Amino acid sequence: MYNSVWYNNLIRPFLAPPSYIFTPVWIVLYLSIIIALILYITSFSIKDKKIGYIFFTIQLILNLIWSPIFFGMQNILLALIIILLMDVFLVLTIKKFYSISKLSGLILIPYLIWILFATYLNIGYFVLN
After folding, report:
1. Which residues lie closer than 8 Å to 101 by C-beta, 6 or more apart?
2. What pLDDT does residue 35 have?
């Protein structure tokens, strides 16, 4: 498990939400990510979908490794680099998904907003600590 003492002793950036907010938000976001992917996969578009799968996979891997790096390794700078890359690949994913299935792209917008907010928090933690 992650070192909650380390995290709780960090200086928090302005607007940092309480910890209990994260679980319900991520449940909704992961459900929306799954729905967006299903819509993309099942779209009848004749356009090539391969690049969308690549962008999606990269952003998902970055998403999955961010927490172990931030909380487990307690490496705020590396986590910041990862989340900035995630921002880029998520935008690319949304653009590609939208070009195939408008709804699948639009469904990912709340995820992007949350990740941009998380980027702000990561920058704040890096600067303040």
Report:
1. 39, 40, 43, 45
2. 98
